[in-house]
Design brief:
Its main location: cytoplasm. With 413 residues, this protein is an alpha+beta fold. It folds into 3 domains: 57 residues, SH3 Domains (SH3 type barrels, Roll), CATH 2.30.30; 113 residues, 3-Layer(aba) Sandwich (Rossmann fold); 187 residues, Hnrnp arginine n-methyltransferase1 (Distorted Sandwich), CATH 2.70.160.11. The protein has 9 helices and 20 strands. The chain binds the ligand NC(=[NH2+])NCCC[C@H]1O[C@@H](n2cnc3c(N)ncnc32)[C@H](O)[C@@H]1O.
Length: 413
Amino acid sequence: MLAVSVPFSPRLTVSPFASQLSFSSGDKLLVHTKPSSDWWWAELQGVTGYAPASYLQPDGAEEEEEEEEDTSLQDPWQDEEYFGSYGTLKLHLEMLSDKTRTEAYRQVIFSNSASLRNKVVMDLGCGTGIISLFCAQLAQPSVVYAVEASSMAAYTRQLVKQNGYEEVVVVLQGRAEEIELPEQVDVLVSEWMGNCLLFEFMVESVLLARDRWLREGGVIWPSSAALTLVPCQADSYFSEKMAFWEQPYGLDFTPLQPLAHQEFFTKPKFSHLIEPNDCLSAPCDVICLNMYTLQVKDLEEMNGQFHFCVEKPGVFHGFTAWFTVHFKSLEEGGTTVELNTGPNSEPTHWKQTLFMLDKPVSVCAGDSISGTILLRRNPVWRRHMTVTLNWNISSTGETDSSQVGTKTFPMWR
Ligand SMILES: NC(=[NH2+])NCCC[C@H]1O[C@@H](n2cnc3c(N)ncnc32)[C@H](O)[C@@H]1O
């Protein structure tokens, strides 16, 4: 039997059954049987009768619902889940195994080793401490404050000791926004980039730490970041998820295509590997961030524009996004290190992010695809955002035509 509560005062309905149970909002009914999906046989204070199922919810669901609301308000950063995930090795192994990513940071430290002598460094979100260990191994900073909020910090302290750098690297467990450092820092380094550059919004923590701990004239690494977009073909993804239902095993499964569309094309596809020849045009940097001037409030809404000239005929399945970050040298005129996660660079664990259109469009060379991209941060779930793409495809073929489209993708809420 199911105890149910009445979440709101039911409107009067005419029951097909003579004996309808009367009840009010907040009443707890005992459900004896469910003869139909609409009407259940229930009991309230010894009186039995039929109650409309749509007015009932499992007992305690209301509290659960409130709790759900509360946790989102109490923990909009989902810190428990977020830092919990970084307390295990899985993500750190993925990041450390990403040689393109990790070697880029190593190159930054190595090529700036002379200028790092006697500097005070903060490694924000140090994880296993790899960047801090590079600083101690390749340069002679006076101190590196390795800040890590997850339980991994305890192991990071062991790794520092194990490698004999406890005189240089100080591991501090806590959120960068909350910990206290004994001094300002000369260099703030962090590997904060998420899928589509901003997902997870760890960048906010970097900006807060910059404002609080980076001394005047100090250096932040990466010093700039860019989100890049390109219109692309995604034949294999499209056939795998959509065309598949045309005639599997000689049967017509097309009634499932709306479901497939909802399930596979509504959200972006993370970890998509785009081939260079899937690109229908040259890519375009749509959002550029200067890490010295970027403000937290700027993260709420970030706009970009694009204008692509289609270079070859093909099918426009969607847009692919990736990011590039730059690490300006500490020395005047020194070399800037670049970490590019695009299709023409060595692959990284981020790969690229694919945004599938509702309907593929055939395009010809010379067509143009122009429009805007809007990244809007989720006002409640602070690590999430939506990506809205607006586009206009204009063909200059024999029949001048243009097609406009817009689509909003949640990442992930
Ligand atoms: N590139 C990313 N998308 N993630 C890679 C870096 C994430 C690391 O920084 C830590 N981390 C993230 N935010 C913070 C913070 N505000 N304070 C301290 N550690 C943090 C997190 O626990 C993890 O170990």
